[in-house]
Write a structure and sequence with these properties.
Elements: H1 11-31, H2 36-52, H3 60-72, H4 81-94, H5 98-114, H6 123-135, H7 139-153, H8 158-166, H9 173-190, H10 205-208, H11 222-225, H12 231-245, H13 249-266, H14 271-284, E1 299-303, H15 310-318, E2 323-327, H16 333-343, H17 350-367, E3 381-386, H18 390-396, H19 400-407, H20 418-425
Helix pairs in contact: 1-2, 2-3, 3-4, 4-5, 4-6, 5-6, 6-7, 7-8, 8-12, 9-12, 12-13, 16-17
Length: 426
């Protein structure tokens, strides 16, 4: 339901277009509340808008309501029913409602089984179920869901297969060797693409000693050759993790290096953009900011570098009944544009501006807390995750161990090599 998030500037037009669509669909739905297709259009448009421009989850309740209205208007054996339920599960997962996501995704999988759909139709559902189970700490069940997702996706969907192989804490030897073969087939297919010639030079002892099975050759391998080469990134990181756990460090490093080079080929490091962002930050925050003076300790800010344990701290705090884990997508980001404009004005009263935006932030955050958690409305504490912007990361931390941890994670696009890390540090 949700397209990949666009870059900030090009996404502005997409955001405006989607918001216009939402406004129109709301009118249509109000006129025809029983129209399942209109409800579905509203839900998917809100879902896509939330993915493109996260704002702390303000659109999620409306989107979930529209998804449920669409489901109510369709028979359970309708061809769309399972897809809608899967979308609802994905939406709830994005909205920090993993228990609800587990319920919807499990129901969708049961319906798929009842309709005797081919197994590969359930790959995405199983993968999202694994993510939801991981979020609530049911790790063994999550690993089982990921393994089933990989099995379902093999031979059909390289994207779901690669992510399902990479997601669990560990993979069995048989699954790892299968991944090695798929990665080899992918390198053979994609080495002809512009910028990927380095794949031709890869010498990997485990893969070079194996002959690809017929299932990974010719037309039977169309599921690989027709996919995007970036899907190989996840496979290489997964295989790196497997060999690292076996203490086969040479092979682990080779796969890690290839994974980073593949990622760099798709999303090159743009240090110039980070420098522009940094200049912008320095232009706004020219002097120490005076405190707002607002005496409110209800928000617990967990601030840390990527891969530093901040998510673990949030989960530990959230284990208390009077603490709500708000996740990384909080109400802060949508407020920063207006806040920065106010603070950049000459002779602005920082205390007044900060007090106004602090109150607005806390009000919006409390709206995100499920009523069943704080039924009396008074509530407890908010656990809010915040990671420094990419342009400021290296100014705050730069130990070798930290750099190594970041390079072993495909999410951080500024760390493809230690050479780039050193350049940023300097």
């Amino acid at each position: 339901a949700a397209a990949a998030a666009a870059a900030a500037q090009p996404g502005a037009e997409d955001k405006a277009s989607l918001e216009r669509d939402v406004a129109t669909l709301r009118i249509d739905v109000e006129r025809q509340p029983g129209n399942a297709m209109l409800q579905l259009q509203l839900a998917t448009t809100l879902h896509q808008l939330n993915h493109l421009n996260p704002d702390g989850g303000s659109r999620i309740p409306e989107a979930a309501k529209a998804y449920r209205a669409a489901l109510d208007g369709l028979p359970a054996d309708d061809s769309l029913y399972i897809n809608i339920q899967g979308n609802l599960g994905a939406l709830l997962l994005a909205g920090n409602e993993p228990e609800g996501a587990i319920q919807e995704l499990s129901a969708a999988l049961q319906q798929a089984q009842a309709q005797q759909l081919p197994l590969h139709h359930s790959a995405g559902l199983l993968f999202n179920l694994g993510k939801a189970l991981t979020t609530v700490g049911r790790l063994k069940e999550a690993d089982e869901a990921y393994a089933e997702a990989a099995q379902a996706a093999y031979g059909h969907d390289l994207s779901s297969y690669s992510k399902s192989i990479a997601a669990p804490r560990s993979i069995r030897e048989e699954a790892a060797m299968q991944a090695v073969q798929v990665a080899k087939a992918g390198r053979l297919f994609f080495q002809q693409q512009q910028g990927l010639g380095f794949l031709r030079e890869a010498k990997l002892a485990d893969a070079d000693s194996q002959v690809l099975p017929q299932s990974l050759q010719g037309e039977q391998a169309d599921w690989i050759s027709s996919a995007a080469s970036i899907e190989l990134v996840w496979l290489h990181f997964a295989i790196h993790k497997h060999y690292h756990s076996l203490k086969q460090y040479d092979l682990a490093w080779q796969y890690l290096d290839l994974g980073n080079r593949l990622m760099a080929a798709h999303t090159p490091h743009r240090h110039e953009q980070e420098e522009r962002n940094l200049r912008h930050i320095k232009a706004i925050f020219r002097a120490p900011i005076i405190s707002s003076g607002l005496q409110n300790d209800s928000a617990i800010f967990v601030v840390g570098m990527p891969r530093s344990g901040s998510t673990l701290v949030e989960q530990m705090l959230a284990s208390h009944s009077q603490v709500h884990a708000a996740g990384e997508d909080t109400a802060l980001a949508p407020l920063t544009t207006g806040l920065n404009k106010q603070l950049s004005k000459p002779d602005v009263d920082h205390t007044r501006v900060l007090r106004k935006y602090s109150k607005r932030y806390l009000t919006r955050m409390r709206r995100l807390v499920p009523k069943q958690q704080w039924p009396d409305g008074a509530g407890g504490r908010l656990g809010c995750m915040h990671v420094p912007a990419q342009g400021t990361c290296f100014l705050q931390s730069g130990t070798f161990g930290h750099l190594a941890a970041l390079q072993a994670n495909p999410f951080y696009r500024y760390l493809y090599s230690y050479a780039e890390s050193s350049s940023a540090l300097s």
